[in-house]
Amino acid sequence: MIGLWQQDPLAFVLAFAALVFSLVLHELGHAYAAYLFGDTTAKRQGRLTLNPLKHLDPLGTVLLLLVGSGWARPVPIHPPAFRSYRLGLFVVSIAGIVINLVLAVLFALVVRGIFALDPVGVVLTLTGEEQTLWGLLALAAFFASSINLVLAVFNLLPIPPLDGSKILQSLLPLSWQPLLWRLEQYAWLSFLLILTVLREPIQEVLRFARRVFFGFFFG
Predict the structure, then answer these.
(1) Residue 139 and residue 130: Cα distance in Å, rounded?
(2) Dihedral sign (CA 36, 37, 38, 43)
(3) Catalytic site residue 204?
């Protein structure tokens, strides 16, 4: 994102808007899935909304822009209220990831559609030779697709408190659940590990995911 700001500030603004939109839909997906499974905690706290102010964490958003790792405000859930604990925890945890994957595909299709309309304009914009309207929109859509792909893959990692850890938790024995929930209080340690020891391995995973995804759509 910082590189995009240096390359094209207007495209950065469009991509940042897509980032905010994607984070909001990710958290809204968690909140709505929890509500469907009988947990009204998120609804009572006003999280069943598209209002970004209800979902974004200022520090987490800034860090996401600067270092590529950040967070939104976690949706509060009360799993004992789920009609089905295991299924509820699985669906609620994966809901945001599914939304981001769908958005990644839709934005990638937008890029392909724009390229079909004006391939020359897109190439000129991407190479920095000339800025065109279609090229600018394609650039912003590409970053929006990449952002959503990264959000989905990153959240799939089985590291507390990421969604992937709760997806895995939903499959583990019920007797383990109290201990697993207690690990949530060490989320700050997980974040430090993500920024230090795990940073390069995670970046490799994300780079691989981007190569496979965009290779499929763009060759």
Answers:
(1) 13
(2) negative
(3) no
Per-residue pLDDT, 160: 84
- What is the mean pLDDT, run by run of 10 residues, along the chain of 219 residues? 72 82 93 96 94 88 69 89 95 96 96 92 81 86 90 90 91 85 77 80 93 92
- C-beta pairs of 47-54 under 8 Å, 24+ apart in sequence: 47/75, 47/76, 50/24, 50/25, 51/24, 52/20, 52/23, 52/24
The pTM (predicted TM-score) of the whole model is 0.88
Residue 149: the pLDDT is: 94
The Cβ-side half-sphere exposure at 69, using a 13 Å CA radius, reads 17
- The pLDDT value recorded for residue 129 is 79
How many C-beta atoms surround the C-beta of residue 143 within 10 A?
22
pLDDT value, residue 216:
94
Buried b (16+ CB within 10 A) or exposed e, 146-183: bbbbbbbbbbbbebbbbbbbbbbbbeeeeeebeebeee
Rounded CA separation 202/141 (Å): 24
Q: Which residue has the tokens 């929006």?
A: 144
Residue type, 32: Y
